[in-house]
Amino acid sequence: MNITLILCTQNRCESLVKALESAAALTLPDSIDWEVLVVDNASTDQTRDVVDDFRSRYPGRFRYLFEPQRGLSFARNAGIRDAQGDVLAFTDDDVLVEPAWLGNLTSALLSGECMGSGGRIIPVWSKPLPNWLSTDDPHTMGPFVAFDPGTGAGPLTRPPYGANMAFRKQAFEKYGEFRTDLGPRPGSEIRRDDIEFANRLLSAGERLWYEPSAVVHHPAPESRMTRDFILRWWFWFGYGEVVDLGRPKARWCISGVPLYLLRRLVMWTLRWTISIGAPRRFACRRNVWYIAGTIAACYGWTQRQNAPSAAVTDADPEGRPLQNGAPR
């Protein structure tokens, strides 16, 4: 088997139908043997019935796997272990993929040129953006799963996102699976399991490839275009950075929280208060929530470090600052 497309899902049977329809319409050369593996992460709706329908309509193309341990990382790892392909592609249960997407995404992996790849993720807006939200601010756009480094294909020096990424199965055999302390699960909205794994490969010197012609369309529903959703997303993003990268080193701390983070919290709160213009005010408020999430994670670091399931170490030996757009 050349390619396994792993699609994890949980209680989204309606959007899953559309996602699988787009997967069924994928076009690849006859010489490439490929499958779609749907990993049902303990759904309680009609997910099994939806997949069974596609299995009957497209014999040999779709497979079903049930993963009882709730959490996206658990589902992805179950898919990795069950996949038959030499190359494993990943996408979400609420996206639409273009017909040439899978072939374009995996071309550099099938040839052995690269260990991983990523493609473009284009948001599909359900309504016009509110006046306090600006597409010119890439940080504010984070919750909408947009990924578009440009129109030119070439080496990828930043992690791709889980809705549009692929790796050779060898990568998981060599570097391990997705970390289960990252990735959304019951009681936690931490993400970054995809980012952490790709960073693991980049740190080891593996080559990743960006393919802009591998296009996924990701819905941006009205429910995400709210202040509450975006602020909550950034709180957990800050929290997840500490779980992933470790507590940042600092000379002065209070209860494990670096004093400079408290200073930044005060500074951005003041900027939020005095800023003029809705987009600017919201950007400052977003930074407040991001820093609050970072502080919360630092405060609970000792408990996480001692937990049996924790797979993180202390901060980077060089004491590097937080990454991926952290406000300074």
Percent helix, as a range, is 25-40%
Q: So what's the overall shape?
A: globular
- Secondary-structure element series: EHEHEHEEHEEEHHEHEEHHH
Q: What can be said about the biggest beta sheet?
A: 9 strands, mixed
Taking all residues together, what is the mean pLDDT? 90
**What is the CATH architecture annotation of the largest domain?**
Alpha-Beta Complex
Gyration radius, in Å: 20 Å
**What's the level 1 CATH class of the largest domain?**
Alpha Beta
What low-confidence regions span 5 or more consecutive residues with pLDDT below 50? 309-328
Count of domain modules: 2
The first-to-last residue Cα distance is 47 Å
- At the third CATH level, what is the topology name of the largest domain? Spore Coat Polysaccharide Biosynthesis Protein SpsA, Chain A
How is this structure best described in words?
- The protein is of the alpha/beta class and 328 residues long.
- It has 2 domains: 3-224, Spore Coat Polysaccharide Biosynthesis Protein SpsA, Chain A (Alpha-Beta Complex), CATH 3.90.550.10; 227-306.
- It contains 10 helices and 11 strands.
- It has helices spanning 13-24, 47-57, 72-82, 101-110, 169-175, 193-203, 227-245, 259-274, 278-299, 301-306, and strands spanning 3-9, 34-40, 62-66, 87-91, 96-97, 116-125, 154-155, 165-168, 208-220, 253-254, 257-258.
- The strands form 2 sheets. Strands 1, 2, 3, 4, 5, 6, 7, 8 and 9 form a 9-stranded mixed sheet that branches. It has a two-stranded antiparallel ribbon with strand order 10-11.
- Helix 1 (13-24) runs parallel beside helix 2, helix 7 (227-245) runs parallel beside helix 9 and helix 8 (259-274) packs antiparallel against helix 9 (278-299).
- The longest helix is centred in the last third of the chain and has 22 residues, at 278-299.
- It is globular and about 60 Å long.
- The N and C termini lie far apart (47 Å).
